Known about the structure:
mainly alpha
Amino acid sequence: xxxxxxxxxxxxxxxxxxxxxxxxxxxxxxxxxxxxxxxxxxxxxxxxxxxxxxxxxxxxxxxxxxxxxxxxxxxxxxxxxxxxxxxxxxxxxxxxxxxxxxxxxxxxxxxxxxxxxxxxxxxxxxxxxxxxxxxxxxxxxx
Length: 142
């Protein structure tokens, strides 16, 4: 007869950013990571705003924000997907290609002859998650 080992930690539920406390706790670091990603990928303000699905003026306010502001569930999900893509690309490429790749036109069917950035701006969260899966698969992480 098998007995449950009570010393093992209980696996928590999958992070979904639905709890306000989680969003408040994660927003500052998520926004900091996103600002760095925007710099590394050399995104325009319009591109950065579109990927977050906010207006350019809202993005400019978020960039300058000094006080803690909770991002919403959608924004945290977008940042999470984009940071995953960023990390995957830096594991895949040893040079500057990791930061150039998102803006290069891509003939692959996933991108419809657009750059990954363009395709994610158009396709939103579902496309961001597909691009993340693609990068993970290319680097052998799936």
